[in-house]
């Protein structure tokens, strides 16, 4: 899954049933943990995917460290200020601090990260925008125009957990 293969592809290559692949995915408990406690700059951005049909959008908002290529923390939710606050709270729970936050001009980022030194603009989010492309290539269900999509929300989140662990550590 972390290299762009879908459930059917894995089942075919491994000569096992789709049910077995889905059961294995359901049992996996990969969670990312930050490699550092202090970062010089974290870039934050949002990415949307869908589950079942395109009207069922799922928004991923995450923090990324450009120098190491690490996804530090992420949350799922609506594209609103509350989800940005959830990301900020998650960073606090993980014990992560940073010298500055880089984001685009979306008001929720500007408002949600008040109190942080902020650099705002597309120039400062080049790294995370490139990582969005990497995510779309690694996780086929992140494509906007694709036949590979999740039917269940739980499988969708598990696939991203697995992919983010792979991106951060290079293995699963």
Overview of the molecule:
The protein is α/β, with parallel strands linked by helices and 172 residues long. It has one domain: Ribonuclease H-like superfamily/Ribonuclease H (Nucleotidyltransferase, domain 5), CATH 3.30.420.10. Helix content is 39%, strand content 26%. The protein has helices at residues 7-14, 18-27, 81-93, 107-112, 126-138, 153-169, and strands spanning 38-51, 53-65, 70-77, 97-103, 118-120. It has a five-stranded mixed sheet, with helices on both faces. Helix 1 crosses helix 2. It starts with 6 loop residues before the first helix and ends with a helix. The mean pLDDT is 89. This is IS1 transposase. Keywords: DNA recombination, Transposition. Absolutely required for transposition of IS1. Belongs to the transposase 27 family. It comes from Psychrobacter piechaudii.
End-to-end span in angstroms?
10 Å
Order of adjacent strands in the largest pleated sheet: 3-2-1-4-5
* The CATH C-level class name: Alpha Beta
Strand content: 25-35%
Protein name: IS1 transposase
Function: Absolutely required for transposition of IS1.
Keywords: DNA recombination, Transposition
Organism: Psychrobacter piechaudii
Name the features:
5 strands; globular; five-stranded mixed sheet; alpha/beta; Nucleotidyltransferase, domain 5; transposase activity; 26% strand; 172 residues
């Amino acid at each position: 899954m972390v290299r762009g293969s879908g459930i059917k592809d894995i089942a075919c290559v491994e000569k096992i049933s789709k049910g077995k692949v889905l059961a294995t995915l359901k049992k996996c408990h990969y969670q990312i943990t930050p490699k550092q406690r202090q970062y010089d700059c974290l870039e934050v951005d949002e990415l949307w995917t869908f589950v079942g049909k395109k009207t069922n959008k799922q928004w991923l908002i995450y923090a990324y460290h450009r120098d190491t290529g690490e996804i530090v923390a992420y949350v799922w939710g609506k594209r609103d200020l509350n989800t940005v606050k959830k990301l900020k709270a998650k960073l606090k729970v993980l014990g992560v601090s940073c010298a500055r936050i880089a984001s685009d001009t979306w008001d929720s980022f500007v408002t949600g990260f008040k109190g942080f030194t902020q650099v705002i603009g597309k120039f400062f989010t080049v790294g995370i925008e490139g990582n969005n492309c990497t995510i779309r290539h690694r996780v086929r269900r992140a494509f906007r125009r694709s036949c590979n999509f999740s039917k269940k929300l739980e499988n969708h989140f598990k696939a991203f957990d697995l992919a983010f662990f792979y991106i951060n550590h290079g293995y699963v």
